[in-house]
Amino acid sequence: MRKIVVVNWKMNPQTLAEAVELYRFTSDVCSAAKEKILTIVCPPFVYLEELSKIESDVLLGAQDCHWEKEGAFTGEISPEMLKNLGVKYVIVGHSERRLFMGETNEMINRKIRTLLNNNLIPILAIGENYKGENLEEVLFAQLRSAFEGIDRVPSDLIVAYEPVWAVGSEEPDTPDHATDIVRFVRMMLFSNPVLYGGSVNHSNIGDFISVPEIAGVLIGGASVDKEEFKKIIEKISGLQL
Length: 241
Ligand code: PGA
Description:
Layout: E1 3-8, H1 16-31, E2 37-42, H2 45-52, E3 59-62, H3 79-84, E4 89-92, H4 95-100, H5 105-117, E5 121-126, H6 135-146, E6 158-161, H7 175-188, E7 194-197, H8 205-209, E8 216-219, H9 226-238
Parallel strand pairs: 1-2, 1-8, 2-3, 3-4, 4-5, 5-6, 6-7, 7-8
Helix pairs in contact: 1-2, 1-9
The structure holds 2-phosphoglycolic acid.
């Protein structure tokens, strides 16, 4: 089984030229490792069109989308618009959207339903806010509400366990703890890939990716640092998985 690497550029880089360069670099690095890694790159919306024209082994994802088909939703992007640009995956419920944009479990549920209706694959991010929070309760509630009203969760839907305190903090979870949580999620979603995300870098990637239950990683900050990203991919390529 190939490992999954989801690349989340967040609100970076600032120019189209830089985005194209970073995408070409990412594609080249990941193309050399394509037997071992499925890479999904999620750039800001405004770069998707241009990046979709570049031939590449990596797949395109978006960082968010709206739950409605069309209409009066200023500033929003519909699933159909994304699909028309060759997007296959969409991150839903990232902690930065939950925290800074007021995204609720109910909104996340609506987004997942819309994505599934549009044949787009959700990458659902879940995670507790602080260490010591009643983890299983929080994660169970997030998962239950995310899938409310959905009879069958398709097996390609991806879940990313991202403890909020570990995202962008340079304080990753421990591989043992992350593994426990991934196992917990898989008790509910047995056939779905579950990733770890939060301060992944070249020195800790091996500890997460070599765990059989961890299907891959979601990488934020380190994905826009070319040298760091290259080291991460090389590290994965060099492992016996
Ligand atoms: P990070 O972000 O790798 O910078 O911690 C992860 C994420 O996008 O959730």
